[in-house]
Automatic annotation (TrEMBL):
PANTHER family cross-referenced by the UniProt entry: HTH OST-TYPE DOMAIN-CONTAINING PROTEIN, SLR1870 PROTEIN
Pfam family, one: OST-HTH
Domain HTH OST-type, residue spans: 162-243
InterPro entries referenced in this protein's UniProt entry, alphabetically: LOTUS-like (IPR041966), NYN (IPR021139), OST-HTH/LOTUS_dom (IPR025605)
Organism (species): Christiangramia lutea
Gene3D superfamilies with a match to the protein in the record: 5'-nuclease, LOTUS domain-like
GO terms of molecular function: RNA nuclease activity
Protein's name according to its UniProt entry: NYN domain-containing protein
Length: 244
């Protein structure tokens, strides 16, 4: 059964660029049955959103800023989220914002057994990130778009830069996670490793390091070894990994 998602976008806090890529990313995790964006549409800085909304069938919610310096958009989005929660029409939420004001909302939705995916810029404060089941940086989606048009030489240079991003701390996180789910021989199913990494660090994503999948990322680190095993129930092989 497909997961139905409510996508709620903070229009005051998210750029309109790469919304198409963002919606494609959200579709990987479920069916976005509710798509709403909140903001004061009388303000000129939101004009860039108008064509994007039509192209992606996102419903704009008007919220006037009644008080100077106060973000009325946050309140409207939070109230709507709770209304949707109690309607029992969705299985999860995608909160699109870089604002830490949604930390408590994410926590409350998870308390109600909702899956919560956050999407925002890298400036997003840690409390909001860790309050989500998974958090995706918009910059990843931008980089994927750019890389599709690069030549081979630039790709090699970019790969070297990406490898430099894999710090000793990241290696230790992966190593400990492998140890946590490994069998007596030290082998761990990569799917279990990926799931536990996500629980430990919601913003962990191999794309942050320039790899589309976790397998090639781990394969690029000489501290791990990978083994492919036949799967009797599928044509796809099972990937196992262990610490060297």
């Amino acid at each position: 059964m497909e997961t139905n998602l409510a996508v709620l976008i903070d229009g005051d806090n998210i750029p309109s660029a790469h919304v198409k890529e963002m919606m494609e990313e959200i579709a990987k995790y479920g069916n976005p049955t509710i798509k709403r964006i909140y903001g004061d549409w009388t303000k000129p800085h939101l004009n860039k959103w108008k064509n994007v909304l039509l192209e992606n069938a996102i419903h704009p919610i008007q919220q006037y800023g009644y008080t100077q310096g106060k973000n009325a958009t946050d309140s409207a989005m939070i109230i709507d989220a709770m209304d949707i929660l109690y309607s029992n029409k969705v299985d999860g939420f995608c909160l699109v914002s870089s604002d830490s004001d949604f930390t408590r909302l994410a926590t409350r939705l998870r308390e109600a057994s909702m899956k919560v995916i956050g999407i925002g810029e890298k400036k997003t404060p840690d409390p909001f990130i860790v309050a989500c089941d998974k958090f995706i940086y918009i910059e990843i989606l931008k980089n994927n778009t750019k890389e599709s048009g690069t030549d081979k030489n630039k790709s090699k240079e970019s790969r070297k830069q990406n490898l430099d991003k894999i710090t000793p701390r990241v290696v230790r996180l992966i190593s400990q996670t492998i140890y946590d789910v490994a069998d007596e021989d030290g082998w761990a199913f990569l799917g279990d490793v990926g799931s536990l990494l996500q629980k430990k660090q919601p913003n962990f994503d191999s794309r942050n390091y320039g790899f589309q999948k976790l397998t090639p990322m781990i394969n690029s680190i000489d501290k791990f070894e990978i083994e492919s095993r036949e799967n009797t129930n599928s044509k796809f092989k099972l990937i196992y990994v262990r610490n060297k």
